[in-house]
Specification:
The structure is a single chain. By secondary structure, the chain is an alpha/beta fold. Helix content is 25%, strand content 16%. The strands form four sheets. The chain has a five-stranded parallel sheet with strand order 3-2-1-7-15, covered by helices on one side. A four-stranded parallel sheet has the order 10-9-8-14, with helices on one face. Strand 5 and strand 6 form a beta hairpin. Helix 8 packs across helix 10. The longest helix has 16 residues.
Length: 472
């Protein structure tokens, strides 16, 4: 393929979430033709899956500048910039209207899942003339039809939510884990809402020690107070939950501190059973429940539960990129230049400096991982960071090197509060939140910006994995 032909092709954007749509908006402003491929039937499908979760950053950090410029002429009503949207509100008030703008709607294909990306006419091992070749993006539609799309460049904003880490030990699935899939709920079930019947009066095992696990556990505790027979077991791989309990009232993020304090109180009060040093080795599904076999503190473990919440974290889907030459960190699976800034083995509540195209580039020119997928296996991502990533990438693809390198990210120097828990920690009424009404606490939250003095955001792990010892 000649260079001229390559430049006549669109830039394929994988994923129609906030970051993917922002990429399309920036590409359009640069005079480049985007084609957005979304696996879901609607834009923002992944966010809709956790629509009950309240973001930890207010609207002012959730709206991309180029996207705003597309929306304003349509009569779009800007939300209260200081209010705190749920995932459902983010889709309804921003993602869906942005995808419906004439400029993006005509360039969006929903129900289109990407199977693979490769250089057109060259496998991974072929170097001769590689830089002149565009990309071949293989897709499958809802009807099962496989179609190849040619692109001058590819921006992968497909995220990581669909690829949870397995329940088994050593990063591997437990024996029988695939067969037990009907009993695994996903990392953020709507315990007090749409999924209530799945948990009420039943035994649930929550696996994981992040904030998603904590929020689910607290929701289950509330459910158990209203519905007798609701039983909760919490399994962690470490020897202590101290890291998640955090600093309580001394925590720099009020909602996070309150989250840890309440969870510790629930454990101390015996409202849930905490198992430490757990290794899940086998899952044996039955008609109504699944048996969980393994060890806890080197003693045999055998649980019979009705549901398993796999709050085990996420990993990027790299199988679709086997034919692309990537430069990924062997630990985090993020771009090598970005990985040292976000590695949870090294960082706790440290900050991530603004970064753009140079940090995100790979040996195959014109291919980029952006948004949550650019973070690989590292936890916690802020939308504003993704927006700056794609602004820089669009500038680079348009040949504006100066704009691509002029990376800026304006965030508050202190934590951004975003949940009813945060409002309560500040002594305010949840009734004054963005929704106008206050869902029953505790509220699910995602952790956002946090470190003082410099621009960036917390890793979401209170002390970082580097602090883990035998009892942590």
């Amino acid at each position: 393929m000649s260079e001229v032909a390559r430049n006549e092709l669109p830039v394929v954007v994988i994923g129609a979430g906030p970051v993917g749509l922002a990429a399309a908006a920036h590409l359009l402003e640069r005079g480049l033709e985007p084609l957005v491929l979304e696996a879901g039937e609607q834009p923002g499908a992944t966010i809709s899956a956790w629509g009950h979760v309240r973001l930890f950053s207010p609207w002012r950090y959730d709206i991309d500048a180029a996207a705003r410029r597309l929306l304003e002429p349509t009569g779009w009503s800007e939300p209260d910039l200081d209010s705190l949207p749920t995932g459902a509100e983010l889709v309804e008030g921003y993602v869906a209207p942005l995808a419906a703008t004439p400029q993006i709607a005509s360039r969006l294909r929903t129900g289109t899942r990407v199977l693979a990306v490769a250089r057109d006419g060259a496998d991974k091992s072929r170097s001769l003339g590689r830089e002149r070749r565009g990309y071949r993006v293989r897709t499958v539609g809802a009807d099962g039809r496989v179609t190849d799309v040619l692109a001058r460049a590819v921006v992968d904003a497909s995220g990581t939510f669909s690829t949870s880490n397995p329940l088994g030990v050593s990063g591997l699935p437990a024996a029988g884990e695939a067969d037990a899939a009907p009993f695994v709920t996903g990392p953020l079930p709507d315990v007090l809402g749409a999924d209530r019947d799945r948990f009420a009066g039943r035994h649930t095992l929550v696996v994981g020690m992040g904030h998603s696990a904590a929020n689910t556990l607290l929701s289950l505790v509330e459910l158990s107070e209203a519905t007798p027979g609701t039983t909760i077991t919490w399994a962690i791989r470490g020897g202590s939950a101290r890291r998640l309990f955090g600093g309580g009232t001394d925590d720099e993020l009020p909602a996070r501190g309150l989250l840890g304090t309440r969870l510790k109180g629930a454990v101390d009060a015996g409202r849930l059973r905490l198992l430490t040093r757990v290794s899940i080795e086998q899952l044996v599904p039955g008609a109504e429940s699944v048996q969980v076999l393994g060890t806890a503190k080197d003693e045999p473990l055998a649980l019979d539960v009705h549901a398993i919440v796999n709050a085990t974290g996420f990993r990027p889907d790299l199988d679709m990129l086997r034919e692309v030459r990537l430069d990924l960190d062997p630990v985090v699976e993020a771009p090598s230049a970005l990985a040292p800034l976000i590695d949870p083995n090294q960082h706790s509540c440290g900050t991530v400096p603004p970064h753009g195209e140079q940090v995100l580039s790979h040996p195959d020119d014109g291919f980029y991982l952006v948004g949550m997928k650019s973070y690989g296996r590292a936890p916690t991502f802020l939308l504003a960071t993704g927006y700056e990533q794609v602004r820089s990438v669009a500038a680079a693809l348009a040949g504006d090197r100066a704009a691509a390198d002029a990376v800026e990210l304006n965030l508050p120097a202190t934590g951004v509060c975003s949940s009813d828990l945060a409002l309560e920690a500040d002594g305010e009424s949840a009734a004054g939140s963005c929704c106008g009404s206050a869902p029953a606490e505790p509220q699910l939250v995602t952790i956002g910006v946090g470190a003082p003095a410099v621009v960036g955001f917390a890793s979401g792990i209170v002390h970082g994995r580097s602090g883990d010892g035998d009892d942590a």
